[in-house]
Amino acid sequence: MTSRSRLPIEDVVSAGGIPWRMNERGEIEIAICGRRGEKLWVLPKGTPDDGEPLEATALREVREETGLDVRLGEPIGSIEYWFTANGTRYHKRVHHWLMEPIGGDVANHDHEFDEVRWVTIPEALELLTYEGERNLVREAARRLGVDV
């Protein structure tokens, strides 16, 4: 392959979170986002607006995608991966924080997902589509004192 036939590479960044709560049975639950047609379950995340700090992006994206108002907690980790779109190869890093809900409701999520639901950590580990996100949930469980 010659250098002229290689795709251009662009670095991109996103930010999101793992909203969590304690349910009435004393179990930790997290909010995850799904698309039925794609059979996709993911953590909420998105791209910063121009000049927007990553922490603000994470709060905004979680609010938009889940319908929850959240408080930013500690950083939980990052995922990085590659994908190709529109003739460009992208190297993406997604930064995540633990987040505690302070209001809102998952019923008020935006149109990007068909469903947002609260699930226990073992359920999340079964449902989440991507291993990198499952690893973040395992780390969140460790920090929250949940055995998985």
TrEMBL record:
<dbReference type="InterPro" id="IPR051325">
    <property type="entry name" value="Nudix_hydrolase_domain"/>
</dbReference>
<dbReference type="InterPro" id="IPR020084">
    <property type="entry name" value="NUDIX_hydrolase_CS"/>
</dbReference>
<dbReference type="GO" id="GO:0004081">
    <property type="term" value="F:bis(5'-nucleosyl)-tetraphosphatase (asymmetrical) activity"/>
</dbReference>
<dbReference type="GO" id="GO:0006167">
    <property type="term" value="P:AMP biosynthetic process"/>
</dbReference>
<dbReference type="InterPro" id="IPR015797">
    <property type="entry name" value="NUDIX_hydrolase-like_dom_sf"/>
</dbReference>
<feature type="domain" description="Nudix hydrolase">
    <location>
        <begin position="10"/>
        <end position="142"/>
    </location>
</feature>
<dbReference type="Pfam" id="PF00293">
    <property type="entry name" value="NUDIX"/>
</dbReference>
<dbReference type="InterPro" id="IPR000086">
    <property type="entry name" value="NUDIX_hydrolase_dom"/>
</dbReference>
<dbReference type="GO" id="GO:0006754">
    <property type="term" value="P:ATP biosynthetic process"/>
</dbReference>
<dbReference type="InterPro" id="IPR020476">
    <property type="entry name" value="Nudix_hydrolase"/>
</dbReference>
<keyword id="KW-0378">Hydrolase</keyword>
<protein>
    <submittedName>
        <fullName>NUDIX domain-containing protein</fullName>
    </submittedName>
</protein>
<comment type="similarity">
    <text>Belongs to the Nudix hydrolase family.</text>
</comment>
